[in-house]
Amino acid sequence: MGRRFNQIGAVTLLSLAILPATVFAADPAPPVVTEGKTASNVDNTAINQRDKLAGNKTPEDQFNTPEDRTLLAEVRRSIVHDKSLSMTAHNIKINVDSGKVTLRGPVKTADEKSKIEKIVQAVKGVSSINNALDVKTN
């Protein structure tokens, strides 16, 4: 009886391990609802492609000097620390090159765009800011 129980137990465990993957793989992603509106396409693919094609530096092109990495971390920390900003604003692209900070990506409002610039200006070591943030219009 002990051996049969082990065989049944192994089959049950295997079934449970496979089941969630098949259930979740078939479920479509739910639509994103923001401020009472449903947005069917909320990704930033077009903006990302535009930034790449324009010859602009992406986060992958980030200079890797210790000073730039430290400044980048401080700028990111300052933006994320402000809980009044949206999650979209917390996830903007930031590049740092010898104290020059470039901001790219979508934000929800013009107020968020200017607030982020003020936050970055207050970070010690920032010499200039290229604020190329886009205000989402949907």
What does this structure look like?
By secondary structure, the chain is an alpha+beta fold. 48% of the residues lie in helices and 20% in strands. It contains five helices and five strands. It has helices at residues 2-26, 45-53, 66-81, 87-90, 110-121, and strands at residues 32-34, 37-39, 93-97, 100-107, 128-135. The chain has a three-stranded mixed beta sheet with strand order 3-4-5, sandwiched between helices. A hairpin with a 2-residue loop joins strand 3 (93-97) and strand 4. The longest helix is centred in the N-terminal third of the chain and has 25 residues, at 2-26. The protein is globular, with a radius of gyration of 23 Å. The termini are far apart. Mean pLDDT is 74; it is low at 19-42.
